[in-house]
Design a protein that fits this description.
The two termini are 36 Å apart. This protein has one domain: MFS general substrate transporter like domains (Growth Hormone, Chain: A, Up-down Bundle), CATH 1.20.1250. The protein has 414 residues and is mainly α. The longest helix is centred in the N-terminal third of the chain and has 31 residues.
Amino acid sequence: MGSLFRHADFRRLFAGDAFSQLGMFVGMTAIPLLAATVLAATPFQMGLLTASEMLGFLLIGLPAGVWVDRMRRRPLMIAADLTRAVLMLSVPIAWWLGVLTLAQVIVAVLLTGIATVFFDVSYQSYLPTLVGREHLVEGNAKLQAVQSTAVLAGPSTAGVLVQLVSAASTVLATGLGYLGSALCLLRIRATEPEPERTEHDRLLPQMLEGLRFVFGSPTLRAITLCTATANLFNGTFDAVRVLFLTRTAGLSPALVGALFAVSGVGGIVAALVSGPVILRIGQARSIWLIPALTMPLTLLFPLVSQGWGLALAAFGMVSSGFGIILYNVAQVSYRQAICPDRMLGRMNASVRFIVWGAMPIGGLLGGVLGEAIGLTATVWVGLAGQTVAVFWVVCSPLRRMRDLPLTKVVSPAA
């Protein structure tokens, strides 16, 4: 399990990921708190803010995959990081100048999300090139450990900083995190090969080829629909969770950050044990069994209060964090392993177009439901929908398998 830490370029990728993930999760707590407590956002405006985070995947997710497959991935990642840094640094600067508005925050988040589309599609397509397919489970586990640590450290740090220096000033850490990531990626020395030429260079046929690859495989289709459904209702939940915790449950910003952080505990444990667990119970079983056991525990979250309810909600967050990370390690490694190099960008973009594109729709739904049926009922809808999403993989061919075939799938177009 320690082999990749002897890989100098992977260490640089790992360090860059640590910078960006920590900054991102600080911002994911600080920006909603800024909107809810300083800019007096309504439930619908919070839904709009949540939707803007992932709207880029819905708008340009598919063509982004084609463009990523035509270009070297590392320069795209560096450009995306620098763009995100500038956009996030504009928020504290505007606050210090006394001109910050909710509209600026939403636009900055939207444009940052568009840059994130290119970064994420490039990132998942770059890892197999950098470390080799035989190290994908280990590489993804280590990078998921970074994300889980950031989930633990980012929100709790943000909650404290918001109380000490203001929410807008806390967003400074997000911009600096993206800048640190770009500097680490610049230090990678491995030469990335030129992208393979395809038989056609038109945008639409190549986009459709990526979609056919994903939906032509029963296992990939089930994984994609499960994640998309969970993300749709997670967007609904995210739209109102800060308002629910601050206005309904009466928690302080520090407690809100701490509660968001605890899911990182489960994620860190999952990242550390994912290799042995997947080997022990099988990759196919890891994709459906672990979420089926852990996702229902998120239904403890609406019981949050100042007393025992806080502990119950925290237990639900830890359990779901464990299940989500182990599921992600198993399914992302599988997707990367079976896809030909020339289609990695389009495959990842097609999946992300569907699974992340569902989140802005869920965010808008959460804003509308928050206004119509109230914050508590909307939280229940979001969490129940995430739990039901597991049935896509439970009722798929995955349930009759122990391990997934790791031979490369040939796309219907090819």
